[in-house]
Specification:
This protein has 227 residues and is α+β, with helices and mostly antiparallel strands. It has helices spanning 6-15, 21-27, 33-40, 83-93, 100-107, 112-120, 140-152, 169-181, 187-193, 203-213; strands at 19-20, 45-47, 55-58, 69-72, 75-78, 98-99, 125-129, 132-136.
Length: 227
Amino acid sequence: MPKRSAENLLKLFDANEVVEFRDIQSALDNASRATCFRYLQQVSYHRSYNYNGCYYTRKDSTRYDRLGLFSYGDIFFSRDNTLGETIRRFVWESQAGWTQRELQDVLRVRVQVVLLNTFRHGKVDREKVHGFYVYLHPDPAVRGVQLNRRRERVVFERPASEAEAEVADAVIIQVLLTLLHHRGAKAADVVRYLRGHSPPITMTEVRIVFARYELDSLGKKGGTSNC
């Protein structure tokens, strides 16, 4: 048997529920990344939708729950592979749409950036209901049914807290971009970096973004990785 073969990967996946890329390289006799991905194309696998897709698992429908999700410790997989496609499916198949907070609670990762991109690319629509954005199917007929069902639900019984208050998408994006360029910055630092922005971005808005998206924990689970 040759040292490098798709069969080597199948044996690796059969012996381990979850593997890292270095395990794949080792199974293929320390092959290059390009060679590894060429062999990976010959087997069925999923990549984690957190940890920047650093973890791999064999594609096995019996592992996934009714929502099409599978977890191994704090490593999360979806039958759709990517977080964006998972969010799209959730919204398309939902009876009453999803809020950002609901998606985040179920998927157990921050979803705000991917969710906004999914909306901007027209894969989902959204509408405010009682001050909250609800993400809906882009087809008008389906969206109408979802919206009516959402409005029938009594899900917003208490007033929105500061962390749940609405902040403009433009403000969210500016805060996130600032954190990308100034890792570890605190809310006060972000306000200072954004001084002179038009329209002005206030400390209250920055604190709301930090609280809602748990930005103080950036760099922990699901954060940037070099894998």
